[in-house]
Amino acid sequence: MKQNFLLIWIVFVVFSCHSIQNENETRRRSPSVSKFEDTIKFPVKQKFVEYSYFETDSNEWLSYLSSGYIYILDLGNKKIVDSIDVSLDSIAAKKYGEISSFCFSGRDSLFVLFNEAVVFWVDKKVNKIIPINELDSAQYTTFRFQDLEDVPIYYDRTAQAVVGEVYCSDCWQTEPAFYSQSIIGSISIHSGRIKLFDISYPKKYLKNYYGFDMKPYAETDDSITLVAYPCGDMVSILNRNSNTASSFPARSIFQTEDAQPLTPLSDSGSVEQKMRHMAVQPYYSEIRFDRARQLYYRFFRKAIPLKNKDGTYNNFFNKGLVLMVLNSQHDVIGEYELPKYYNSYVSFVGKSGLYIYDVSPNPEYKNLTVFHVLTFK
Amino acid sequence: MRQSAILFVFLLVACKDQRDQRLLEKEENIKNFYASQLKKQVPENDIIVILQNQQCVACRRDIFSSLYKLLAKSDLQKTFIMAVRDTVLLSLIRNLPNSSIEFDTTHKLESYGLDYGADLCLLMKDGRVKKWFELSNVNLENMHSIE
Questions:
Q1: How do residues A277-298 score in pLDDT, each as one tens digit?
Q2: Model pTM score
Q3: What is the tens place of the pLDDT at every residue in A326-375?
Q4: Distance from C-alpha of B47 to C-alpha of B125, rounded to nearest angstrom
Q5: How far apart are CA B64 and CA B52, in angstroms?
């Protein structure tokens, strides 16, 4: 009798472990879906440092910031159709700082995130200024609302709030405290109150320091914010309505080893060591959600050696680029190696598919803006 | 007690070894860059300043100002290696005694491990890299001399 119980217990434990393992294991569907690719050329050369895609009922637009103006490019007829002056006078510019992100809600409503304010434009006129960070120290005691690079702001029409990145301004990035705090917040456009959501870094970031491989990548759509981390296999989904976060595994087949921490910790003060670490380690970057096709796109950059056989050094841009495609059940349904001159930083989901900016030194593209549009069937 | 002493010596040697390896690597990097790209030998006794991070000269004004003061104190020859012909920096450097400028016009610094986002300062002595450091406010803050 005792032996039977023991046997049942062992079987139970084995099955439990098996089920835990599966939860963290990336599911794959084969055969992979086929990739189709189109190239779109715009007859102007643009630099996309800050950009934002948006669509209206009839059209879709790509907007970008350049020299104090936000230009609006009509993706359909490939022409710049409008521009909005977002430069501030010298006193306001000193007070509010620089622009780190912006987004549209329709053609008439524009939200711009400055260092110290969220400014709301309606029909090209400033409608509201919400002071943030240093200018609202009562609310922003130990954290800041800012797009550090890859978490652009998004206007949530239902909540009437601007969603974006928050980080601990009171912690060292080498300390676990930095990683245990909320990383997504939203600012009510009416009250100016900030709400922090229950989502923070994966546990591995609390245990070890990963140098520059720590900045989150996010995409917000409707009530969902997707968050991915350079060293994390998992992708987090934040449901802002319920303020709950879940995650799903999405590890690339091109990732042959786990990302290693930056050691020794004294290297945290060296830009060079952090850049070298970033160059060699496996690295997940942008995450995109295609609502119309119910697909997720995740970019991955392969691990590479610091030095090549000929003695030359590699940098981050020498890493091989991979695009993972996942379906709505979070199964990987395809992984594709892309040319290194595909710039995933400037990528977005449009009506025609996934747009990726081309930065190749091709002389034919010297005066053109080129996007590759990818679809999967 | 004896074990502690051994451990201490081991740690000391390990740390020293790591530091030396980085010094040796940087020496190899700069020598290779000079030989392959500038087609000359690396200067014997010089201060070499690599300014590859020229994206935002204005926001790095403080750092460059601190460096400039330190360089002005030194009688050594200073060589600046620049990625971009920035007129503001060029005019400042030309006013500095014993200075010369080399250009990395083909942007090859990165292939030689000399461009990872941080400006660098290398002190050459008898054809060897005696020390090197990244140019940052923190590194320059308490420095009274580069030599």
A1: 999 999 999 999 999 999 999 9
A2: 0.88
A3: 999 999 999 999 999 999 999 999 999 999 999 998 899 989 999 999 99
A4: 9
A5: 13
- Taking residues A85-109, report their average pLDDT: 96
Residue ranges of the domains in chain B? 2-141
Ranges of residues in chain B whose predicted pLDDT is under 70: 1-19, 53-60
Per-residue pLDDT at A19? 47
Domain chopping of chain A, boundaries: 31-376
Residue pLDDT, tens place only, A2-31: 566 666 666 655 555 454 456 789 999 988
DSSP structure class, residue B29 = H
How many angstroms separate the CA of residue B3 from the nearest CA in chain A?
24
Q: Do B112 and A307 touch (CB under 8 A)?
A: no
Q: Which of B111, B116, B138 sits opposite A272 (nearest CB)?
A: B116
Q: Is A307 within 8 Å of B118 when comparing Cβ atoms?
A: no
Residues in chain A closer than 8 A to B121 (CB atoms): none
Cβ–Cβ gap A315/B116 under 8 Å = yes
Q: Which CATH class is domain B2-141?
A: alpha beta
Q: Which of A262, A306, A312 to mutate to test the interface with B (most CBs of B within 10 A)?
A: A312
Four-point Cα dihedral B29, B79, A268, A151, nearest 10: -100
Fold held by A31-376: Neuraminidase (2.120.10)
ipTM of the complex: 0.80
Distance in angstroms (rounded) separating the CA atoms of residues A289 and A52:
15
Question: Closest partner residue to A271 among B110, B111, B117, by Cβ?
Answer: B117
Determine contact: A307 vs chain B, CB below 8 A. yes
Cα–Cα dist A40/A249, whole Å = 33
A270 touches chain B (CB under 8 A): yes
Pairing assessment for the beta strands A321-327 and A332-338 based on DSSP bridges = antiparallel
Q: Average model confidence (pLDDT) for chain A?
A: 93
Q: Is A313 on the interface with B (CB under 8 A)?
A: yes
Residue among A108, A182, A109, A194 at smallest CA distance from A151:
A182
A272 and B CB contact within 8 Å: yes
